[in-house]
Amino acid sequence: MYGGKQFMPKNRFQKAMLDGFTDEGTFNNINESIRLAKELKVYDVVNASGKSMGILAEIVARLKVSEELEIMEIEPIERIEA
């Protein structure tokens, strides 16, 4: 709510600032962050345009609301010969 009215973000940056990615799910947020990161070049980060800043804000916002992944070590299953 903003000023008593429902505020709808108009772009990526506004959605990122309003934590608009909390309902997307961890795996979706991580996968989308990877996809967005592949769109950027290092130069885009150093000399960011408005579009690049929006993409960066979305990546950070998505990763901030994602749960940490756990590495599980699983013992290999041995084959039983019949």
Describe this structure in words.
The longest helix is centred in the C-terminal third of the chain and has 15 residues, at 50-64. The chain is elongated. It contains four helices and no strands. Helix content is 49%, strand content 0%.
Topology summary:
Blueprint: H1 12-17, H2 26-39, H3 42-46, H4 50-64
Short description:
The chain is mainly α and 82 residues long. 49% of the residues lie in helices and 0% in strands. It has helices at residues 12-17, 26-39, 42-46, 50-64.
Number of strands: 0
Oligomer: single chain
- The stretches of 5 or more residues where confidence is low (pLDDT under 50) are none
Helix content: 40-55%
Largest sheet: none
Instruction: Give the CA-CA distance, first to last residue.
Output: 66 Å
Strand content: under 5%
Q: Helix/strand/pairing class, anyone?
A: mainly alpha
User: What Rg do the Cα atoms give?
Assistant: 19 Å
Which of globular, elongated, flat, extended, rod-shaped describes the shape? elongated
Number of helices: 4
Mean residue pLDDT: 85
- Order of H and E elements: HHHH
